[in-house]
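User: Hi! I have a protein structure encoded as tokens and I'd like to know what sequence might fold into it. I'm fairly new to this, so please keep things simple.
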């Protein structure tokens, strides 16, 4: 295999000035002058306010993080088989990826679903699909994460009803559903309704879960997709936390007590390639959240101030060129998430820049977590970088930058208004453009892409989705519609529309419609007749 020769390897003659991916300058050496002014107040002890060093006293000495590999493709039968495969190989929690039509609120037989069914995740149209998805998996003995936002209330209803059929009441179900609609308008662009009714649905879910599902996280406030859209670590931190504070404010406006719902809010962060910056990002996130929950929102319970998060290694850092290099990238990113104190972790597979991962690639990704947990020794003590002059300085800088963004967002009227004015969208677009310029000018090196390239790469075997699966899924949906009680479906959809036009909590009528076998698309359409739809003003 030929490596392209270079007369002068630039990596050996580097300039004296360096910065993190967010632009924080890195000093030639860190010492006592970079230490926090008041370490007792800002660093503290693991498991104690402000939780800089970790949310729990013993961290992984007491319990390892949950190894929760993201899985979903094709029909529910194929994904159910992958779930069982992962559980058999040592995974400790399920994480469900849905296909694009499901994420957008379209049924598999919708014209806009053509060619997309089962391609990027699993297709789920009705309660029948959810039953098959978790066939043979006792929901009372496993925690499940579901990555879905605009139609999250509908998928939660399906899950609750599957638990009911298994004899597991809602209060015994454990897991997380993403539901973070603000980051959809900012970054991922999967929505069904205008911002205000979408925010109402989020608040309805927070309220309903706080009363009925004490072990469930109704919102996973997500920076992951903000980072995947091209943001810096600084922007990911600031926009994610500001989204979280906005959900808290809406719940308080609803009349909820902060200590009743805040303990069930969780976070989802990206684990990117700038090792120390990522560790600092997680530590700053915990400290900011704890301070604001206590001082701004009046939380009294430590559980309300304790930020807990899931991390996933950076999909955007994976390369289609020399894909085996991605094993190393993923390992470093996973290690940063662990050293930063994550509560659960997904490690990307080395072939995901090409297609959905093969079983071999998934197994290597899971083994990566197991090696870090059981062989490396990094899980033996909480926050081993605590007190590091470099890491503490970076943590302080991440915090300061976040508060600067908070100020700028507040000046335009808060996060919802900032999104309407495209403020975070512009900031991310500019950051993404700057990063690409650095790659093009080779001021930033990505091994195998703009340096150390290889001209005779052999193709990597990839997983291909059988096009026949789409017909199989649409046939299943047709069968469900043919056997259900059509009058009951119409009755429950009419009740959902009526409730949408009031201020009632929408979870009960959504559960009723799901029980009647109404499809996701039918429920979304019913609510759109009241709420309308949304069109974004593009940012260039």
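Assistant: Happy to help. Inverse folding works backwards from shape to sequence: for each of the 540 positions I chose a residue that suits the local structure. Here it is:
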């Amino acid at each position: 295999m030929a490596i392209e020769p270079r007369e002068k390897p630039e990596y050996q003659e580097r300039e004296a000035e360096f910065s993190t991916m967010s632009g924080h300058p890195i000093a030639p050496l860190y010492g006592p002058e970079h230490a926090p002014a008041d370490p007792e107040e800002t660093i503290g002890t693991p498991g104690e306010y402000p939780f800089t060093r970790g949310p729990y006293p013993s961290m992984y000495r007491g319990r390892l993080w949950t190894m929760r590999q993201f899985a979903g493709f094709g029909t529910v039968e194929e994904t159910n088989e992958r779930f069982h495969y992962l559980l058999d190989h040592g995974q400790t929690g399920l994480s469900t990826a849905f296909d694009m039509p499901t994420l957008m609120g379209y049924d598999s037989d919708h014209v806009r679903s053509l060619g997309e069914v089962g391609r990027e995740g699993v297709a789920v149209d009705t309660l029948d699909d959810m039953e098959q998805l978790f066939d043979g998996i006792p929901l009372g003995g496993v925690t499940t994460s579901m990555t879905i936002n605009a139609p999250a209330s509908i998928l939660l209803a399906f899950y609750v009803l599957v638990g009911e059929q298994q004899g597991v009441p809602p209060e015994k179900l454990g897991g997380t559903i993403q539901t973070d609609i603000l980051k959809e308008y900012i970054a991922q662009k999967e929505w069904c309704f205008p911002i205000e009714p979408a925010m109402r649905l989020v608040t309805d879910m927070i309220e309903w879960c706080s009363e009925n599902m004490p072990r469930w996280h109704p919102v996973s406030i997500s920076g992951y997709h903000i980072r995947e859209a091209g943001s810096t670590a600084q922007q990911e931190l600031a926009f994610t936390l500001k989204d979280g504070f906005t959900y808290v404010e809406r719940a308080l406006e609803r009349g909820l007590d902060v200590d009743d719902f805040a303990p069930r809010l969780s976070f989802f962060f990206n684990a990117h390639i700038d090792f120390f910056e990522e560790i600092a990002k997680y530590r700053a996130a915990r400290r900011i959240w704890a301070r604001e929950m206590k001082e701004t929102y009046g939380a009294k319970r430590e559980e309300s101030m304790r930020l807990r998060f899931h991390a996933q290694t950076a999909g955007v850092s994976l390369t289609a060129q020399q894909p085996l290099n991605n094993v190393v990238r993923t390992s470093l990113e996973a290690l940063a998430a662990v050293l930063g104190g994550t509560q659960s972790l997904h490690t990307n597979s080395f072939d995901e820049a090409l297609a959905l991962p093969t079983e071999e690639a998934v197994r290597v990704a899971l083994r990566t977590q197991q090696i870090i947990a059981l062989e490396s020794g990094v899980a033996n003590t909480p926050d081993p970088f605590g007190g590091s002059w470099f890491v503490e300085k970076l943590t302080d800088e991440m915090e300061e930058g976040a508060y600067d963004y908070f100020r700028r967002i507040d000046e335009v009227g808060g996060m919802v208004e900032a999104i309407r004015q495209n403020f975070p969208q512009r900031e991310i677009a500019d950051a993404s453009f700057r990063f690409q310029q650095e790659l093009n000018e080779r001021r930033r090196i990505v091994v195998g892409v703009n340096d150390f390239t290889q001209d005779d790469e052999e193709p990597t075997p990839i997983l291909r989705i059988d096009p026949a699966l789409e017909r199989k899924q649409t046939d299943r949906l047709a069968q469900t519609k043919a056997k259900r009680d059509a009058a009951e479906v119409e009755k429950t959809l009419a009740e959902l529309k009526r409730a949408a036009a009031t201020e009632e909590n929408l979870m009960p009528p959504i559960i009723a419609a799901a029980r009647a076998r109404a499809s996701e698309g039918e429920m979304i359409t019913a609510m759109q007749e009241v709420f309308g739809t949304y069109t974004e003003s593009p940012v260039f």
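A useful reference point when you look it over: The longest strand covers residues 265-271. Feel free to ask if any position seems puzzling.
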